[in-house]
Design brief:
TIM Barrel, 19% strand, binds iron/sulfur cluster, nine-stranded mixed beta sheet, 9 helices
Length: 307
């Protein structure tokens, strides 16, 4: 099968539509957020996937996925997500295959895996590991002993990271949990661990926090430490689709999470010739962007040049 070539460009960003926003420089590397399964051993009350019809799916054809990753132009960062990726039966095979190709590997996990399995993962990713993100789900980490154990595991992973790798913890700021988060953030910081907060979402949007809660959340760093609770980039030029995309366990690829939710800007099936990357940046079509990965990698202008 031939390598993936960029598709025809999406329409260029018209000046009147973009509001004069200039595209950011082309990112040196691409990044994929891959939900490799819907399976999870937790059932968090705020899980955005809890209404999925089938929570037992997992990417089955490891060889076909690895062949598809090998066809990507250049080196990409593959962020493994789920469900819970550590429940995937061939996780280690996937990770070592990606690392051998020279791609980079990141992961987001509920951190329920044993230290032994975490270590196997770290060894499989070797020097290609980029970001290890452990989610703190307080519905499950609900005693002091479990919290101590979670933090000890965090330090264990952080101490094994290769050069260039980073570790962080995230926690969903439900209205119940929010009052505890400043204390927790400080406690993690004192232990040498970074705790970032994420606003709770229901359906497609962030829940309605009171003004006081919104202030607390912003003081905790906003969404994933990005300074704001919710981001709005509609009409601004964005590289998502060309230098980043989301992938599901069946190989379906969309420009980004909002595109997937609205079943828009489908890039095709990654495992077949139907998959094509966009050629460059194009206007964002969505009112609300919750795409931490493209935001952190400056895929769209967040501020005007003169700001
Ligand atoms: S651990 Fe993550 S995927 Fe699993 S139920 Fe909780 S929020 Fe959902
Ligand atoms: S929602 Fe975010 S990632 Fe998606 S196109 Fe808009 S700015 Fe880009």
């Amino acid at each position: 099968m031939k390598s993936f070539m960029p598709n025809q460009p999406w329409p260029p960003v018209p000046e009147f539509a973009s509001g004069g926003w200039q595209a950011t420089p082309e990112p040196a590397e691409g990044v994929i957020t891959w939900n490799i399964n819907t399976t999870c051993n937790y059932r968090c009350g705020y899980c955005t996937q809890r209404f999925l019809d089938n929570r037992t799916r997992w990417a089955q054809d490891t060889a076909a996925f690895l062949q598809a990753f090998a066809r990507l132009p250049g080196k990409w960062e593959i962020k493994l997500s789920g469900g819970e990726p550590f429940l995937h039966p061939t996780l280690l095979e996937i990770v070592s295959g990606l690392a051998r190709m020279g791609h980079f590997v990141s992961v987001v996990t509920n951190f329920s895996a044993s230290e032994e399995r975490l270590l196997d993962f770290l060894q499989a990713a070797s020097r290609q590991l980029r970001v290890f993100s452990a989610s703190l789900h307080l519905e499950y980490i609900d005693t002091e002993a479990k919290l101590e154990q979670f933090m000890a595991k965090g330090l264990f992973v952080q101490n094994q990271l290769p050069p260039g790798g980073s570790f962080n913890v995230t926690c969903v700021a439900t209205q119940t949990v929010l009052p505890q988060l400043a204390g927790l953030q400080q406690r993690f910081a004192e232990a040498g661990l970074r705790l970032k907060v994420q606003p709770e979402k229901q359906g497609r949007d962030v829940i309605s926090y009171t003004a006081e809660e919104a202030t607390q959340l912003t003081m905790l760093g906003g969404h994933n430490g990005l300074g704001t609770i919710s981001h709005h980039f509609a009409n601004r030029p964005c590289w998502a689709g060309a230098k980043s995309f989301t992938l599901d366990d069946l190989g379906n690829a969309w420009r980004c999470y909002p595109a997937r939710r609205y079943r828009a800007q489908y890039l095709g099936n990654f495992l077949t010739d139907s998959f094509q990357l966009a050629q460059g940046p194009s206007p964002c079509l969505y009112q609300y962007c919750n795409c931490t990965v493209p935001i952190e990698r400056n895929m769209m202008p967040r501020h005007r040049a003169e700001d």
